[in-house]
Amino acid sequence: MNDTQGIFATSTRQVNIPVAISSRHVHLTQATIEQLFGNQYQLRVDTVLNQPYQYEAMETVALIGPYGRIRNVRVVGPARAVNQIEVSRTDAITLGIKAPVRESGDLIGSPGIVIEGPRAQVQLGTGVICAFRHIHMSPADAERLAVKDRDRVEVSTEVYNRGVRFRDVLVRVSPDYQLELHLDTDEANAAGLRAGDFAVLCKTGNSDLNL
Predict the structure, then answer these.
(1) Residue 58: which residues within 8 A CB-CB, separation 6 or more?
(2) pLDDT tier at 194 (50, 70, 90 boundaries)?
(3) Which of residues 111, 131, 151 is at a domain's end?
(4) What CATH number did the domain enclosing 156 receive?
(5) Is 68 helix (H, G, I), strand (E, B) or coil?
(6) What pLDDT digit, counting tens, does each position of 162-172 carry?
(7) Cα–Cα distance, 199 to 159 (Å, whole number)
């Protein structure tokens, strides 16, 4: 849905942003997909995501770290140029991996992991991160909110009597993006959030919107 009408609260001093909760998942290159699932293998769409062209695939893999294994980790399609594994801090502890908090695509110096599929195990040298919390938005959203790509903002939640204020939330702007706050499962659980809830944009780099 491209139309953002109704997303913004009637008050100009409060902006509600839909919340998406990112559970552990992997983005894989076509070469890695074929190693794990078979020659010329194509991912099958299970659930179309709100961000255009993105989907949860039917395929899952296991992640194998020095201290533990996590099964049934969803592959997110389509295939990418580089492998990227996104986990929460709790997942990283389970696996025994020191995953840095990074923006998507910032993989230099990140740890590797073993990925297991039905056909083989693949050892990755890098690619495991805890994704930096961020807001996707279109250029029209960014103009309305007086922010730009790579700005940092603050959002707050008031759900289930567990209000949390998240600072240092990265803004990502693209014509392909829908307005959506992405948190990992640890962050969402701390705030008592569920998919479909809303957070409030309360501070940009220039102003505090809820004072």
Answers:
(1) 43, 44, 45, 46
(2) confident
(3) 131
(4) 2.40.40.20
(5) coil
(6) 778 999 999 99
(7) 9
Q: Determine the 3-state secondary structure of 157 from DSSP.
A: coil
* Structure token pair of residue 17: 């942003």
Instruction: Respond yes or no on whether the N-terminal peptide bond of residue 78 is cis (omega within 30° of 0).
Output: yes
> Could you give the CA distance from residue 50 to residue 179 in angstroms, rounded to a whole number?
9
| Tokens 């909110």, located at residue | 145
Same domain, 88 and 117: yes
Residue-wise pLDDT tens digits, 141-161: 999 998 999 999 999 987 656
Confirm whether 153 is domain-assigned. yes
User: Token digits for 1?
Assistant: 């849905």
With respect to residue 54, please indicate whether it lies within any of the assigned structural domains. yes
Q: Is 58 helix (H, G, I), strand (E, B) or coil?
A: strand
Same domain, 126 and 137: no
Buried-exposed string 38-67: b where 16+ CB fall within 10 A, e elsewhere: eeebebeeeeeeebeeebbbebbbebbbee
Domain that holds residue 147: 15-20+133-203
Is 4 domain-assigned? Answer: no
Global pTM?
Answer: 0.86
CA atoms of 139 and 110, how far apart (whole Å) = 31
Which residue is it, tokens 């995501």? 49
